[in-house]
Design goal:
elongated, 132 residues, single chain
């Protein structure tokens, strides 16, 4: 009998080392065989990185909302592109229908997101030339 499990390690566990050791120990203690198919490094971008600061500033400029970045455990395109983070489109206090039946975005929020994304693209395209 086999069981397939998808573990998502937080960056502090460095999937390949500490996380693997913990899984091996757990398997051994419970008379299980651990067969690891694939390990992907966790994505982690420090809050004080230039990329995050640019995106926070763009968000604040376009919404008037000054908020901390939100870390999530979901799988995104960011796992496949270097120096990338997921950004948008859910606003604070808004119903989260992402990946649910009848997923939607209001017309107002769609246009807000278009403006934010265009601003972010512009700022990030010019970021290399304006680094402190």
């Amino acid at each position: 009998i086999g069981i397939k499990v998808d573990f998502r390690f937080i960056p502090q566990y460095k999937g390949e080392t500490e996380g693997r050791k913990k899984l091996e120990t757990l398997a051994e203690e419970n008379d299980l065989v651990l067969d690891i198919y694939k390990i992907r490094k966790a994505i982690y971008m420090p809050k004080d990185s230039g990329l995050i600061r640019v995106l926070q500033n763009v968000f604040k400029r376009n919404t008037g909302i000054d908020m901390e970045p939100v870390a999530m455990g979901g799988g995104t395109y960011a796992k496949f592109l270097p120096n990338t983070v997921a950004f948008g489109p859910l606003f604070p206090g808004e119903e989260d229908s992402i990946h649910q039946p009848n997923e939607y975005i209001t017309e107002e929020n769609l246009f807000k997101n278009i403006n934010i994304m265009a601003d972010a693209i512009f700022e990030l395209a010019n970021y290399e030339n304006s680094k402190e």
